[in-house]
Amino acid sequence: MNNLAHDHNNRRMELVLAAASLFRDLGYERTTVRDLGNAVGLQSGSLFYHFRSKEEILVAVMALGITRTTEQLEAALSCADNPRDKLAALFRVHLNSLLGENQAALEVMLYEWRSVSAAARPGLVVLRDRYEALWQTVLDEAAAAGLVGSDTRLLRRTLLGSLHWTVQWFHPEGEMDVDRLADRMLALLLREEPSSTC
Amino acid sequence: MNNLAHDHNNRRMELVLAAASLFRDLGYERTTVRDLGNAVGLQSGSLFYHFRSKEEILVAVMALGITRTTEQLEAALSCADNPRDKLAALFRVHLNSLLGENQAALEVMLYEWRSVSAAARPGLVVLRDRYEALWQTVLDEAAAAGLVGSDTRLLRRTLLGSLHWTVQWFHPEGEMDVDRLADRMLALLLREEPSSTC
DNA sequence: GTCTATATCAAGATAGAC
DNA sequence: GTCTATCTTGATATAGAC
């Protein structure tokens, strides 16, 4: 059983979700085990029955963020049957995972790498590479269809950077919702005027 | 005199530069005042003759990163006389400031916001906004010239996100140098095949 | 301006009762 | 499985000599 991603223990999952929010809001280093305990109604010492260390919680948060997003992207791609719709799925799934309600885990995955020990990194890199491989496939198909240029590896990194950065400025309570943002960013890529709502 | 950005004290500047590298490599929270002292050959206590707190060092690093980059962009733009060259200057200056030799300060500015106290943020926001205003002006001119689409505010955020993210994957020792990267990223935007070297 | 020495505090983690 | 209590460490910052 894949301990990184799947976890059928309710208490553990509850803790991981609470940790995701705290790590996102305060940063991993500034979040204390006492904060984590408070968030789920436990004393700080009790956390260590469920996790060996604070870092193990971080790794669990990150793994959850990236595997969930990957699963959602796979599901969305299987419903799309042309390159244009697949491109749209990339943007929508990624932004909803990053900016949607209670979706802190992916953001932690993106911005807390420095706190992950060398020992824990390879497992997370595998998960991240799997996600990015989906992106690469879709972009290559789009390039073959003439929708985007042929420099798809750089394009992948460029687009993912653009999307990742949205957490720094986008506020869901604003005038624009997440799906609308996805449409507008896709329109920038394709040089279309953004469509009304599809 | 603007204490945030300009500093005519040599010792202070030496410290800020060393701190920039450490904060980038280890992260602000994981860098200790002992690390900072070691880097410049001082005992940790001696730092507090030059700075009131560790956070004051962080703010100085960030202010240096963004003001230097702004100055370099202003200089580059004043040498460019058409929208296309001004666009190219945006990319080149930003990437060289972010990825060039001993250019850690801007990266710290981008990735350590969470460690800046509410009291210190407004001063930095002013500096950042000044930089982004330069970007906005250039993009608006480019849109007027038909080089890019008209959604320039979103485009600005999208492009800056792409550039900021390069620190996560670009390695200057690789086959591609920073100016070449800038050209290729500009080519993506303009949908050109990247030119050889200009 | 830099040193030595240390005050002060909070962090992650553990032990053993329940 | 969770609690209370605490161990141990390492952090920022200060005081006062030089």
Automatic annotation (TrEMBL), chains A, B:
Domain HTH tetR-type: 9-69
GO molecular function, one term: DNA-binding transcription factor activity
Residue ranges of the annotated DNA-binding region, renumbered to this chain: 32-51
Full protein name: TetR family transcriptional regulator
Protein species of origin: Paludibacterium purpuratum
One Pfam family of this chain: TetR_N
Domain of life: Bacteria
Alphabetic keyword roster: Coiled coil, DNA-binding, Repressor, Transcription, Transcription regulation
